[in-house]
Amino acid sequence: MNSFGSGKATVFPCAACKILRIRCGEKCMLAPYFPPENPHKFATAHRVFGVGNIIKMLKVRFKKNLPNDGRADVVSSMVYEAEAEARLRDPVFILKLHLDQANLVSLVSRLYTLGEESKPFSSSESDPQDNDNDNSADHNNDLFLEDSDPMILWEPLWP
């Protein structure tokens, strides 16, 4: 008998046993870390590490008398590492993430600048329309990346 999926069947099998289509037992080693309501967590770790390696890592932690929360940290780091590896396999996602982040930084800086520019108008009686027309052309270009150097997008990925 294996160390997971053996013993008496439970009403709700853990995500690991459900995905592997085996009977989940009371002594299922994976049940505390892969609850039935979150099968994506197990599928992600299983895709990269495999069931055997997940169990080996948990057994090593068990032999070292690691507390239960320590074993949960091991599982969380396996899932995180698996998701990171999936992102490396899909560079388009990384590029889109980088573009979105650059646009967000640009928008936040523009918002801050507009907030700083509006402070004098709130305390004085001058007409705010005069300054808005002068700076509107400068701020519209902040939303876009420079088209002159397309390799600027890849700088954070390769040192």
Automatic annotation (TrEMBL):
Domain LOB: 12-118
Region described as Disordered: spans on this chain: 118-144
Pfam family, one: LOB
PANTHER family to which the protein is assigned, alphabetical: LOB DOMAIN-CONTAINING PROTEIN 1, LOB DOMAIN-CONTAINING PROTEIN 4-RELATED
The family this protein is said to belong to: Belongs to the LOB domain-containing protein family.
Protein name, UniProt field: LOB domain-containing protein
Organism in which the protein naturally occurs: Taxus chinensis (Chinese yew)
